[in-house]
């Protein structure tokens, strides 16, 4: 199988608290009294009252409410299902559901309804839990999340009872009633629905709208969450806590005009696994919500974390500030565990980088604001992360050397601005090491880099650029020339290929044409072989044919080096003029910047 070396791309407030009692939940409004399973995944625990109380079952009001509030409901349902419900006490206008972010709750034999939520559907659902637990016992749970026993199998039972027609008994008619006690253990499992229940939801949807067309799970999920957030029907927290009927009512109008051919139901299990792992690793609500709304991005985590066997029990980082190998190269502060494969270790570093990305992005934004306030002409680009496949292409042999999985860039208008920023950078970043080639005698792309340690131990790269160099890189073809010529690097695996992402194809073609135009303007005859090489690469990209390592021979790598000198000559002349003393001054300047790190500046291997 060939690897791809294509170029990489780029709160709901976390009010969770710890919980002691356990929770069975259908769809709380905000946060729930404990950890909640939903059809889209578990919700972390929040604080609730301690004590010897039974499981709390929380329900959010349905979209369509039936306002029948018959006081005989307990006896009617009790007779219908042969369960004695007389011992259950219902509390109207209670403040307790608000404390756990629900419309209604059941805990032991006490049922509480928030103000205005004493509705027929809410009562039937909560009494349905009482009936189910009395008949079948409190479930033991089929998984453990955050120290709580969690059950995902019994919420449908309460819904079934809620949706069943009431059967009124004739006066004097009696039914044998079970008096089995509901569990009051504080270790009772949490009941909830997850995204793995999507097949059942889709089956119900297809019955409701009478269609045989397959409905795409991810599209339903995305539309459902979008409507929940947009309509404020339910407060979003981690994943939308909805019951089947609520979900169907939300998306049926949308589905009546849209169907997606093909099904992705097989992703449900990996989706739940990835979301659960990310929550355990500390990903915040806003990031979880973003991934839910973008299944394509979530698929990345399913590949790296879920389907690829990511082990979240391994430590995120060790206690070292930095490590170096025998040759003095800086290594990630994450360490490979005994018997851990290099491939798995690299996945762990990539996952760590993704978790570090939001905080790093915030820091880069703060850095730009501080530099601008200090009168420094600079722009800090948003932090980006390297995709796992590209990281594997580059670092499969030495994963702990993957220091640019997360990286940010600061572009300065001039060397003067960069020198002015030196002391500020040392105070804003935990700098480990610096390296670069500003003022180097070679005519190539010149920049300076800092390795910085982020919170949690992840090492990231901050690139310091000069505007003249970046203009040559992106406007004169330097970027695309590098993407192609790097295939000749001996560290790149033999089966590596390069083909730009579809959205970048046009940009790649334009950059290569710009290179041809420059070569023809300089000396079309002298550079005819160089032009032929670039045109061949351009033709492959235009035909969506991958460029292979064999396409970039040593001779052609030499062509690329000569072309690079032409592209960057003007920028180098400007840099030399700004340093006033040319190469000597530039090298001295690099040594000054190197003082930001723990030692003198180093070139990267």
What does this structure look like?
This protein is α/β, with parallel strands linked by helices and 605 residues long. It has 3 domains: 23-193, no CATH class; 201-307, no CATH class; 323-594, Beta Polymerase, domain 2 (2-Layer Sandwich), CATH 3.30.460.10. The protein contains 19 helices and 20 strands. It has helices at residues 73-81, 96-99, 120-136, 155-163, 198-209, 217-231, 244-255, 268-280, 285-293, 295-307, 342-373, 388-395, 415-428, 467-475, 478-485, 505-523, 528-542, 554-579, 582-594, and strands at residues 3-4, 23-25, 36-38, 41-43, 56-59, 89-91, 104-107, 110-113, 143-145, 148-151, 190-191, 323-324, 330-331, 378-385, 406-412, 431-436, 448-453, 459-466, 496-498, 547-548. The protein has a 5-stranded mixed beta sheet, covered by helices on one side. Strand 10, helix 4 (155-163) and strand 11 (190-191) form a beta-alpha-beta unit. Helix 3 (120-136) packs across helix 4 (155-163) and helix 5 (198-209) crosses helix 7. The longest helix has 32 residues, at 342-373. The protein is elongated, with a radius of gyration of 31 Å. It starts with a strand and ends in an 11-residue tail after the last helix. Mean pLDDT is 67; it is low at 1-71, 144-150, 170-193, 232-240, 256-268, 306-322, 581-588 and 596-605.
């Amino acid at each position: 199988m060939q690897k791809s070396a294509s170029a990489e791309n780029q709160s709901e407030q976390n009010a969770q608290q710890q919980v002691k009692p356990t929770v069975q939940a259908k769809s709380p409004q905000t946060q729930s009294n404990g950890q909640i399973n939903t059809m889209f995944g578990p919700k972390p625990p929040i604080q609730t009252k301690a004590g010897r109380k039974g499981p709390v079952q929380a329900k959010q009001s349905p979209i369509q409410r039936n306002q029948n509030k018959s006081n005989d409901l307990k006896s009617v349902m009790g007779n219908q299902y042969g369960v004695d419900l007389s011992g259950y006490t219902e509390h109207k206008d209670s403040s307790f559901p608000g404390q756990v972010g629900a419309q209604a709750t059941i805990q032991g034999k006490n049922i509480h309804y928030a103000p205005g939520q004493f509705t027929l559907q809410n009562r039937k659902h909560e009494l349905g839990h009482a009936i189910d637990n009395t008949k079948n016992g409190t479930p033991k749970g089929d998984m453990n999340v955050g120290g709580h026993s969690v059950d995902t199998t019994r919420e449908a039972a309460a819904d079934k009872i809620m949706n069943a027609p009431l059967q009124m008994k004739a006066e004097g008619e009696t039914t044998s009633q079970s008096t089995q006690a509901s569990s009051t253990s504080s270790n009772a499992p949490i009941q909830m629905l997850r995204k793995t229940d999507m097949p059942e939801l889709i089956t119900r949807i297809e019955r409701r709208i009478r269609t045989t067309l397959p409905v795409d799970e991810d599209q339903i999920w995305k539309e459902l969450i979008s409507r929940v957030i947009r309509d404020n029907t339910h407060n979003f927290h981690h994943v939308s806590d909805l019951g089947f009927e609520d979900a169907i009512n939300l998306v049926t109008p949308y589905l009546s005009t849209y169907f997606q051919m093909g099904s992705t139901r097989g992703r449900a299990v990996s989706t739940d696994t990835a979301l659960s792992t990310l929550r355990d690793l500390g990903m915040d609500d806003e990031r979880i919500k973003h991934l839910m709304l973008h299944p394509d991005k979530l698929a990345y985590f399913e590949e790296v974390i879920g389907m690829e066997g990511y082990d979240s029990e391994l430590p995120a980082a060790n206690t070292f500030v930095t490590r170096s190998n025998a040759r003095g190269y800086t290594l990630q502060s994450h360490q490979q565990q005994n018997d851990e494969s290099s491939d798995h270790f690299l996945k762990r570093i990539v996952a760590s980088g993704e978790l570090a990305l939001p905080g790093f992005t915030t820091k880069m934004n703060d850095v730009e604001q501080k530099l601008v306030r200090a009168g420094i002409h600079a722009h800090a680009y948003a932090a980006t992360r390297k995709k796992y496949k590209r990281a594997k292409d580059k670092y499969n042999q030495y994963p702990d050397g993957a220091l640019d999985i997360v990286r940010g860039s600061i572009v300065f208008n001039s060397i003067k601005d960069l020198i002015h920023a030196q002391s500020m950078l040392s105070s804003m970043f935990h700098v480990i090491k610096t390296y670069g080639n500003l003022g180097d005698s070679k005519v190539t792309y010149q920049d300076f880099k800092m390795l910085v340690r982020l919170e949690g131990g992840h090492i990231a790269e901050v690139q310091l650029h000069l505007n003249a160099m970046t203009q040559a890189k992106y406007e004169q073809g330097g970027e695309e020339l590098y993407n192609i010529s790097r295939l000749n690097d001996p560290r790149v695996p033999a089966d590596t290929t390069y083909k730009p992402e579809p959205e970048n194809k046009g940009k790649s073609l334009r950059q290569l044409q710009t290179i041809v135009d420059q070569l023809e303007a300089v000396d079309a005859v002298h550079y005819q072989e160089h032009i032929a090489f670039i045109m061949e690469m351009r033709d492959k990209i235009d035909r969506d044919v991958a460029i292979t390592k064999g396409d970039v021979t040593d001779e052609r790598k030499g062509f690329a080096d000569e072309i690079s000198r032409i592209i960057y000559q003007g920028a180098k002349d400007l840099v030399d003029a700004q340093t006033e003393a040319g190469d000597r001054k530039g090298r001295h300047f690099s040594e000054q910047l190197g003082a930001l790190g723990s030692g003198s500046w180093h070139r990267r291997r």
